[in-house]
Design brief:
Serine Threonine Protein Phosphatase 5, Tetratricopeptide repeat; two-stranded antiparallel ribbon; 4 strands
Amino acid sequence: MKKLFFLGLFFGVFITPSWTYAQENQELEVEQSSEVFLEEYSDTFQENFFEGLKQMGIRNYDRAITYFLECKRLQPQNTVVSFELAKFHLYDKQFIVAQDYAIEALNGEPENYWYAETLVDVVDAKKTVIDEVKGELPWSNVVLRGNLAEIYFLNEDYLTAKSMLKGVKTSKKQEYLEGKINDSIAKQQKKIVPVVKTETKVPSEDSNTVAAYRAKIEVMLTSAPDSDELLATTEEAMESFPSQPYFYYANGAALNKALRHKDAIDILETALDYLIDDTQLENAIYKELANAYTATNNTSKANMYLSKIK
């Protein structure tokens, strides 16, 4: 048996968030520490854990999962292992399994910010809502609810962020967060322009073709129309032609215009899934993804997509 104190992990397992609001926009910043305290574990556990980290570091995720599953067998209640397995299964798009592990980790340590963030990522990837799993969580934990509110605030999902604090006896920090959420909701509402309904025209036979939709959307994108109209048109185009990557790109651009950056990221990544040999469109998608990630304060992802532009 060995004691391992403050093992520096390549990717970071336990990390501690801290809040700072800078200058006029008072943006949230999160400081991360890459240290973790493992307590006493068997040599077999340590060997599997280290090997799992090693495989993760070289992006050999299948082998990494195998090692962490062995750690799970040896230490079934270990929240660090549950957390890592949740992340791996999220990468592999096995969302149901990822959600189970994320919930398990949070039940073990309800006040861990990064466990909560992983659960939110899984829920978003499943295109569901956090309310669907709150019955499986220690929902009365004030710190957990505050962490979820902060995460949704950073994701610019202000209404969900506000709902996380409903009925909670908040601390000074959470009261300040609630004020920021309310301010953001107010600013967002001011930017919503009422849609002026015009007379509906009967479309011609050619008005619902791929080319017709694309021509119409291209004009709307360049002339910066009402975002609601652009969203409605691009959604209609996607429904009519679900395998056309341009319509997903245009919908992502419309979502960015509507300040729904998290939704934009999901749609734009879907556009890449459908894309085949179109460098110009690929570059446009990368640019919109960079804009969306910049708006959500994820500069590393923004720079990654900017670097992909040919």
